[in-house]
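User: Teach me something about this protein's shape.
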Amino acid sequence: MTAPRPLRDRALDNLQFIRSTMERAGSFTAVPGWGMVVLGVTALVASWYAGSVPVAPVYGASQSRWLWVWMFEALLGAGIGVAALLYKALRAGDAIVNGPGRRFGLSVLPPFIVGALLTYVLWQAKQLQLLPAVWLLCYGAGVVTGGAFSMRVVPVIGICFMILGTAALFAPAGWEAWLLASGFGGLHILFGLIIARRYGG
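Assistant: First, the predicted structure itself:
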């Protein structure tokens, strides 16, 4: 016969179980991995169609087309992201309008609104070369703040976007396009696959 486990060890196991259960209940787990993969693929297609990869310099006579292609991609990506998020949340039984889902949404939204306002201002000022950095930084900031109420991998995604956005601020002319494609295309696909594998789709 084996000796019974000490009461202290069993109490620690119970506390760890309770803690992990509370963390899962208090976090928004409906971040859609496969939706992020699809979003990343559409972003790579947008990069190619806009002529931003591998054409250098990034901006020139096709500035208007470049901007409108990415505006369309932003709307398409938002639609894909919201639809995939709602599908995963409904399938998992996660609440969207209250609890962690509501906190996640309210945290993500302000940096996205700031990004949209800065896009308009920079477009009016004809400073389109700053847009990749602004988009990557604002998107990353939104994901980081929303990630405080989600899975641990989510803030990491946001930090990676912010690193790329910072690099886009100081990178030589022509690099911004590659950083933009790497972020909205590559990071979405990479982390989407990780989330799909580890957190159920």
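Now, about its shape. The chain is about 75% helix and 0% strand. The helical segments are 7-25, 33-50, 63-92, 100-124, 131-147, 153-170, 175-198. If you'd like, I can walk through any region in more detail.
User: That's plenty for now, thanks!
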